[in-house]
Specification:
Largest sheet: 5 strands, parallel
CATH class: Alpha Beta
Strand order of the largest sheet: 3-8-2-9-10
CATH superfamily: P-loop containing nucleotide triphosphate hydrolases
Shape: globular
Bound molecules: adenosine-5'-diphosphate, guanosine-5'-monophosphate
CATH architecture: 3-Layer(aba) Sandwich
Radius of gyration: 17 Å
Oligomer: single chain
Helix content: 25-40%
Strand content: 15-25%
Length: about 210
């Protein structure tokens, strides 16, 4: 046991779960980077959020999101089942508390994809584990627009609104622990893998 080498009360991460929160502008590539990381690292579990947004064609209920009605979302909020929730472009998104807390208690690491205020709320939520905040940005604003257009999921109006939200979101970069530029997908995934690995090796008081 690694604890044999350390003074009483100290240990290294890895026996307890860590929450890795990835935020950043819509279109930065959060979903793409996260899905590749999940494929490579079996110790990471994705926190599937609930949302009232309509499903995109390539999305799967229970894998990408729990797609719920307004009434179902209200129920989740009033019964305290969400760790945090927000409204984004007229739709609501929230993190199911139980799934996250149970997995962390089992020593699994959890990966979350949320917008910036959600990330900061998770850091303040008093989870009994480290919360690592990672901000993902595209290499430029032009590339961000090109990616959202290429994804083909947003109207021009929604695209404009997402860019306005993004301008506000990047102001919060200093409140995060890490910044990753998603230029080439492979590099961004490798950088995120390195962050996960380093955080698992941190020496911490238990
Ligand atoms: P987010 O989850 O942050 O909104 P997505 O993962 O949906 O972003 O990515 C937005 C679009 O950009 C998608 O069409 C995706 O395939 C593409 N994309 C993601 N990462 C890259 C990259 N490194 N280079 C080029 N295109 C990318
Ligand atoms: P999209 O509609 O592109 O899937 O997501 C829109 C925004 O909502 C993204 O920034 C995404 O990270 C965020 N989001 C997804 N799930 C949650 C959640 O549970 N809580 C919060 N606060 N934001 C979320």
């Amino acid at each position: 046991m690694v604890r044999d080498f350390l003074p009483e009360g100290w240990g290294v991460q890895g026996e307890r779960g860590i929450a890795f929160v990835v935020a950043g502008p819509s279109g930065a590539g959060k979903s793409s980077v996260i899905s590749e990381l999940l494929r490579r690292d079996r110790r990471l579990d994705f926190s599937v959020s609930a949302t009232t947004r309509p499903k995109r064609p390539d999305e799967v209920h229970g894998r990408d999101y729990y797609f719920v009605s307004q009434e179902e979302f209200d129920q989740l909020v009033s019964s305290g089942e969400l760790l945090e929730w927000t409204e984004y472009q007229g739709h609501r998104y929230g993190t199911p508390r139980r799934e996250v807390v149970n997995r962390l208690a089992q020593g699994k690491d959890v990966l979350l994809n949320v917008e910036v205020q959600g990330a900061l709320a998770i850091a303040r939520a008093g989870l009994p584990c480290p919360v690592v905040l990672v901000f993902l940005v595209p290499p430029s604003w032009e590339e961000l627009v090109a990616r959202i257009r290429a994804r083909g999921t947003e109207s021009d109006e929604a695209l404009r609104e997402r860019l306005l939200i993004a301008r506000e979101e990047v102001r919060h970069i200093p409140e995060f622990h890490y910044l990753v530029v998603n230029d080439r997908l492979e590099n961004a995934v490798r950088e995120l893998e390195a962050i996960v690995m380093a955080e698992r090796r941190r020496i911490t008081r238990w």
